[in-house]
Design a protein that fits this description.
The protein is of the alpha/beta class. It starts with a strand and ends with a helix. The chain has helices spanning 14-25, 36-56, 68-82, 98-109, 125-131, 155-165, 225-228, 236-248, 253-267, 294-303, 330-333, 347-364, and strands spanning 2-3, 60-65, 89-93, 113-117, 137-143, 170-174, 191-195, 206-211, 273-275, 284-289, 306-307, 336-340. The protein has two domains: 14-248, Type I PLP-dependent aspartate aminotransferase-like (Major domain) (Aspartate Aminotransferase, domain 2); 251-364, Alpha-Beta Complex (Aspartate Aminotransferase, domain 1), CATH 3.90.1150. A seven-stranded mixed sheet has the order 2-8-7-6-5-3-4, sandwiched between helices. Strands 9-10-12 form a three-stranded antiparallel sheet. Helices cover 39% and strands 16% of the residues.
Length: 366
């Protein structure tokens, strides 16, 4: 199997699997318990928080969640309640993941207004986001790396510009696709959402970073875990796997650059190939194959044991609205393929993908 759909999910690494299994069998105490088993479990949480904070390069608190969807919902809906007197306007983008776009839609149903900016409309996208902030803007929510094209947003520039314009405006960043893949120097925010299964941890666990001095209203109420802000017994085993995955993730920026370049070179041998990725994280390449619908090419590749995507895994094969935000035509969006790499991806994987793309073109293009 050649797995090139790592933006959808990743194979848990050996280190994560080992950590999960060890904590399931040997460190299964409830971290809220006062006895030794509970204390040992609590140590896992503290260690994981420290590791994740160090990787983010930010100063604040980590709250563990069930995944990035919960983290995004908490950041958006929780801050709306906590800062309800700061304004009723939200500045975001037209390329956000549904777990950001949908909570914002819910707020709009309650009387908030949202400005959604598209990269295709601005030469300086970050400045456009900053310029859209006014005295009534309580929240700016942007993604660090777009999950469909790999487009990188300079969140540090946005954060600094927004705070100069309106210090009360909260900046939230969905960092799911950039975490562990990009240097933290371009990441800055009041709230940051991340997910374990995108970095070779397991599904079912994520985290929300909250900067010092920031607050939010909880979405869940119950036992008062995590400072009464995220109730529910912590998944110690999954959190241990999350920490292990973060520690094990290597610096692959140079490798991803080479793989990305190689794939583009091989694809250039075929007519009718359009690259949809620019200013992108090099572990992601989105391209369109003229004359061959995405679903047809995807299943053709699958027959050869090559797994790619036609867009966001959350869109269930629907034509991407995100690509339109980058100026991709409907025709090209309908034939778009996303290849996303991981530390285990090899040049031979890329060669095999390109070869099968060529065969698919010969078979299906009309």
């Amino acid at each position: 199997m050649i797995y090139l759909d790592n933006c959808a999910t990743t194979r848990p690494c050996d280190e994560a699997i080992k950590a999960v299994c060890e904590n399931m069998s040997e460190n299964f105490g409830n971290p809220s318990s006062l006895h030794k088993a509970g204390i040992e479990a609590e140590k896992v949480l503290k260690s994981a928080k420290k590791t994740i904070l160090n990787k983010l390069g930010l100063d604040g608190e980590i709250y563990f969640t069930s995944g990035a969807t919960e983290s995004n919902n908490t950041a958006i809906l929780g801050t709306a309640k906590a800062y309800k007197h700061n304004g009723r306007r939200i500045v975001t983008t037209a390329m956000e993941h549904p777990s950001v776009a949908e909570p914002i839609n819910k707020l709009c149903e309650q009387g908030y207004t949202a400005v959604r900016l598209a990269p295709k409309d601005y030469e300086n996208f970050e400045q456009a986001i900053i310029d859209a902030v006014d005295s009534d803007t309580y929240l700016v929510s942007v993604m660090w790396v777009n999950n469909e094209t790999g487009y990188i947003t300079d969140t540090a520039k946005i954060y600094n510009g927004v705070k100069r314009k309106n210090p009360k405006t909260i900046v939230h960043v969905d960092a799911v696709q950039g975490f562990c893949k990009l240097p933290s120097k371009t990441l800055k925010a009041d709230f940051v959402s991340i997910s374990a299964h995108k970095v070779h941890g397991t599904k079912g666990v994520g985290a929300l970073f909250v900067a010092k001095g920031m607050r939010f209203e909880p979405l869940l109420y119950g036992g008062g875990q995590q400072k009464n802000l995220r109730s529910g017994t912590e998944a110690v085993d999954l959190i241990a796997g999350f920490e292990a995955a973060v520690k094990a993730y290597p610096d692959c920026r140079e490798k991803y650059e080479k793989l990305n370049t190689l794939l583009q070179e091989r694809l250039s041998a075929y007519e009718g190939i359009t690259i949809n990725s620019f200013n992108n994280s090099k572990n992601i390449l989105n391209f369109s194959v003229k004359g061959v619908r995405s679903e047809i090419m995807l299943h053709f590749l699958e027959e050869s044991g090559i797994y790619v995507s036609s867009g966001s895994a959350c869109s269930k094969g629907k034509t991407s609205g995100v690509l339109a935000a980058f100026g991709v035509s409907d025709e090209n969006a309908d034939s778009a393929i996303r290849a996303s790499f991981c530390p285990e991806t090899t040049e031979s994987d890329i060669e095999a993908l390109a070869e099968q793309i060529g065969r698919g073109i010969e078979r299906f293009r009309r």
